[in-house]
Design a protein that fits this description.
Length: 260
Amino acid sequence: MKADSLHLTLREVVCFKVGELADRTGLTVRTLHHYDEIGLLKPSGRTAAGHRLYGEAEVRRLHQIASLRHLGLALDKVRACLDRPGYSLERTLELQIERIEEEIGQRERLRDLIVRLRARLESAEGVSVDDLTRTIGVTMNFEKHYTPEQLEKLARRRESVGDERIAEVQEEWGTVFAGFAKAMEDGLDPGSDEVKMLARKSAALIEEFTGGDPGITRSLSKMYRAEGPENVLSDHGGMDPELWAYMGRARTALSQDDAG
């Protein structure tokens, strides 16, 4: 059978009742009824008993609706797209392919991060399952708070820095946190020279991590605010909120000195 005649045959046989269309697409009958009620997807006709009927044109439009919803568009935005002159099913498919490729890229970047994480953990001694799950949780938080471009940049930076330097940085952070904790316990003013020296060291470590990228620095700050230092710093045993506030006052004192 030639392609044209096959296409003609398909056009002739496509005629679904609402329940049949729901079964084939995985949508609910209620959803299709709602689309009809708001004028987003009107049936091509009705049976003698009043049941909605959908032909090929409606199925094509429904595919566009489902694809645009997958892209995250609200129903009013979906309608605006479909009502745009010249907007086609082909354009919807192009957008969906772009989104899927973006999602694949994100998954691959996350996979690479976790592979490197696993290698680091497997090389350490005495790493518990709890340590592993907490660290993977931190990795997942990275994906939530950093853009794909920032994650890729951080991955490249990790490769250039190397595992040896990363291990050294982990130790240096441990020393910095211990220094802040002792200073707070000793009652030192956060604006004292000794504490500001610790703040300057922490700022240098952050600068090394971000590579001086202001966007990554902002994302890092957002992650700390959203997740809390006790979760982000789980590798270091968490963070006492009082100590975190003390460190914040030291950073403020340091920035005021630098600004002056």
